[in-house]
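Message: Just now I want nothing more than another pair of eyes on a protein record. I am handing you a single protein, as its sequence and its fold in token form. As I understand it, each token names a local backbone shape. Take your time, and here it is.
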Amino acid sequence: MKEIVPLLGLETEYGIIREDLEDSDPVEESMKLLKSCAQKSVFGKWAYSQENSHQDMRGFQVSSLAQDEEEDAFCAQDRKRPYSYLEMKCDRVLANGARFYNDHTHPEYSTPECNSLFSLVAHDVAGERIVAESTNLRNQEIGEKAVQVFKNNTDYSGHSYGTHDNYLVPRDIPFDLLVKGLVPFLVTRQLYAGAGKVGSENPKTKDFKGIQLAQRSDFIEKVLSIETMTQRPIINTRDEPHSSRNQYRRLHLIMGDANMSAYATALKVGSTLLVLNLIASGVTLPDIELENPVEDVLRVSQDKNAILKRNSGNSIAALEIQESYLEAVEQNYSGGNKESDWIIQEWKRTLDEFKHNPEKLSDRIDWAIKEKLFTEFMETENMDWDDPMLQSLDLEYHNIDPDRGLYRGLEQENEVYSLLTEEEISRAIEFPPEGTRAKIRGEAVRKESEKIKSIHWTGIEFENGDVLDLTGVISQEDVGRTHVTR
């Protein structure tokens, strides 16, 4: 059975506020947070010349993006600041192989490339800890806990910021096949991958009361688009593989939520990986083509029992779509390896409980945890879903401060499922994943940081002229064959 290369990554943009100032500047605050990071790293040497976000997977290059116009507007504003572009980015490449930088108004943490699901989840949680430590150090400078950081996707003021899951996919898989196979799955993945959200920011459903499954669903506007800041799509078409272009694509999915639950992160990425394996293998996929997939994203988020229209004229429940994919995955990958078996087992358990005992999801699925927590609070305080206090609580659920974050409090009280050990998280904070090019990058940062001239996902240039090309480094064997050239 053919499988795609299990090379995975997560990018998370964190929300940031400063509570002691009436009009704080998120650019300045993100910069100062990055400068507070105490992890061993290479600072300010990211090779932006290696970036190209304008190539589209559909076979063309766009001349401009909406984000270019927004960046131009930012630049006009930034000319008033006493910093260069690179100074504002505050890029750090850490000794664990990750990248931590200022994405203009958000601190962003990109995990190193991981070759196993549980390694990826450990590195995602390691990112939370590193961002939290940097926040604490910044607040020590201020003298009070003024800066607060949130692992979420909305500020409840109409802005959405992303959590992107990334997969290395063979280029010989036709892009149209990826789209056909993934769209129904991604529309309904929020049944267990959604982070939950009180109310709605979508203009069409502004009167919605209650808790949605997902935060990003308010902001999805297209099936396909290369854009990430406007016209946000179910499937992003940016063709920037960060690897050998003639062999691979990087599937860059931008509609996912920032999960506080490591279990939910694992199920989100793991189920997607197995569906991609189905597509790569050429097996017969569930024949589900939705009539209105973009509208269905929001429909499912606001009604987890939604019935969706198919192009065939029939209807299908969101849960049935997930069950169809699970059945195909189970038939083809059950007994394959430990991680696949865990994904199948937990995917099956979660869908079964969703159907028969949804209250059992409230220890590990974010939206269900919120639903239980907020419902109990409303009953105690005699309030309804439209009370503004609930949106404040929603934000605090995602606060990464262990003394304030609601999810952090549930963790400390052992009220939520613990997927990882402290040893696994601590190791991911300090060390890169074994058997990946991130191992090479991380070790270079750890041992040769003062000698590095520039650094990127695809390589390292040293001050003496040596170049370490990591473009084709994918597997353990590639890591062993890596060499320096001049």
In short: The first helix runs from residue 26 to 36. The longest strand covers residues 163-170. Residues 8-427 form a domain with the Creatine Kinase; Chain A, domain 2 fold (CATH 3.30.590). The radius of gyration is 22 Å.
